[in-house]
Specification:
The chain has 494 residues and is α/β, with parallel strands linked by helices. It contains 17 helices and 19 strands. An eight-stranded mixed beta sheet has the order 7-8-10-9-13-17-14-15, with helices on both faces. Strands 1-6-5-2-4-3 form a six-stranded mixed beta sheet. It is elongated, with a radius of gyration of 24 Å.
Length: 494
């Protein structure tokens, strides 16, 4: 998509989009400014359509030379970054019904009560690119379907450098997000641990600031990752332990670890899932997809910290070799884990991933995992759960998520609940002795493997990793790529 910025008329655009507040007086004033000869007729049609600027309302102005479209934002006083993203998503929805290769925006209409042109450029790029994403590589195209393939966007602004700066940032963030979506959407027959490792190798090959190390089963065994090996042992697919490293050009301000759960298919193991519950279990590597997607663009964002991306990739499958309920295994720190249920496998692989990450001398870690269904019960399908042992880290991540529009909610790590994970025969059990508070007890399980001087946060993606129905105007059904933009925003701020 080519971005052209002008400081006066943009007659080349076939369609011009205006966001409007929920304000009938302001909408009437805008119609007057557009200088239609049949202004009263336009206002009459608008009244008949009951267009009042409500969120999701769209009104097309009657014009032959250039189509003008008003998009209701539902906001009363001003537009924020998420409003801009949502409006950009509505633009794509409109263009799925009306084919064009160019459109325009006049920035003064978008900057209602908010003059942050950099953020506007970023949000519009994010909303457009995320909304027009379509995973259709296995689909025969419908000849009647309008494919949104925009060649040109025209922007009217006297702050072109600022808009372009934000646009470039937004484009990069969505590239990483859309790669993560691709990885989540791939069938498990394609998205094997080997396939995931190859994506990491390609990223490292294409960028001098990134290196990668892939450990095989023998190397993992030598390092004492018995927990990870235990989950893998039921599968015929080869495990791959992925370690990506980004180093900034100058001296690194800090060393950060990002750990993604990488179960490329989760059958539940011997505690096999019901058929309906297994349908979308190709998405159980969404945490890993976030890490890989982030690393694909991290060098373009250029954070000033050294970042390590860790993924213990494997399948969780039932077989004669599979881990059994009641088995006891150890992680590489030597802590023993009783397997109460083989379908609580992600936390077991993370016990080794987190231990390995700390062994690299990393003192700040964020892990991402489709860890529990309990978090969906607690927060619904659109919110991720955030657990952190450090208030500062918790606030930073919440702030970054708010900036990106990715919904997240902070949940507690109550020490009195630790006893629920107690085992009679091992240091800890992988499921609690109650069905309540499952997201919390899973997070507390992970915390057992975090050393005292390490800042750690856990993001449970059980809800927003995969959208069963559209989350908003720019996030449709399928892999969401949740967390890529939030973490990149966070890394930029450090």
């Amino acid at each position: 998509m080519k971005l052209t910025i002008r400081n006066k008329d943009i007659d080349e655009a076939e369609i011009l989009f205006y966001p409007v507040l929920k304000d009938k007086v302001a909408i009437a004033k805008l119609v007057k400014q557009l200088d239609y000869e049949d202004e009263e007729l336009v206002l009459d049609k608008m009244a008949r359509a009951k267009f009042a600027g409500n969120k999701g309302q769209v009104f097309t102005m009657p014009d032959v030379e250039q189509i003008v479209v008003l998009i209701g934002t539902g906001q009363i006083k001003k537009l924020a970054m998420e409003d801009w993203r949502q409006t950009a998503g509505e633009i794509v929805a409109y263009l799925k019904k009306f084919q064009t290769k160019s459109f325009g925006i006049e920035t003064s209409a978008w900057l209602k009560g908010n003059n942050d042109v950099v953020s506007l450029g970023q949000a519009v790029a994010e909303g457009l690119e995320l909304a027009k994403y379509d995973f259709d590589k296995y689909k025969k195209q419908d000849k009647d379907k309008i494919k949104v393939d925009l060649e040109n966007i025209f922007v009217l602004s006297n702050k072109s450098a600022q808009f372009r700066k934000g646009w470039q940032t937004g484009t990069v963030l969505t590239q990483g997000t859309n790669l993560a979506r691709d990885l989540v959407n791939e069938p498990a027959g394609v998205m094997t641990p080997t396939y995931l490792a190859r994506q990491a190798e390609k990223i490292a090959k294409d960028n001098k600031n990134i290196s990668v190390k892939i450990l095989d089963k023998a190397q993992v065994k030598k390092m004492g990752m018995e927990a990870y090996l235990g989950v893998d042992q039921g599968s015929n697919e080869a495990l791959k332990f992925i370690h990506l490293v980004y180093k900034p050009s100058g001296k690194a301000k800090d060393k950060i670890g990002l750990v993604g759960k990488g179960i490329t298919f989760d059958s539940g193991g011997l505690n096999i899932k019901p058929g309906d519950s297994m349908t979308q279990m190709k998405m159980d590597m969404a945490g890993a997809a976030t890490v890989i997607g982030l690393f694909s663009v991290i060098a373009d964002i250029r954070p000033k910290v050294e970042v390590h991306g860790i993924v213990a990739a494997c399948e969780n499958m039932p077989s004669g070799r599979a881990l059994k309920p009641g088995d006891v295994i150890k992680n590489m720190q030597g802590k023993s884990i009783e397997i109460g249920n083989t379908d609580a496998e992600g936390r077991v692989t993370l016990a080794d991933s987190l231990a390995y990450t700390q062994k690299q001398g990393i003192k700040t870690i964020v892990d991402l995992a489709t860890l529990t269904g309990a978090v969906v019960v607690a927060l619904g399908p659109d919110y991720a759960g955030l657990f952190a042992n450090d208030d500062g880290l918790n606030k930073q991540l919440l702030k970054s998520a708010d900036a990106t529009g990715e919904k997240i909610w902070s949940l507690p790590l109550p020490p009195e609940y630790k006893k629920l994970n107690k085992s009679a025969i091992a240091d800890i059990r992988n499921i609690p002795n109650t069905r309540y508070g499952g997201a919390i007890t899973a997070a507390l399980f992970l915390e057992e493997f975090i050393e005292d001087d390490v800042k750690w946060a856990h993001i449970d993606l059980g809800g927003p990793a995969y959208a069963e129905k559209p989350i908003n105007s720019y996030t449709g059904v399928g892999g969401v790529g949740y967390g890529v933009r939030t973490l990149l925003e966070w890394l930029r701020s450090i």
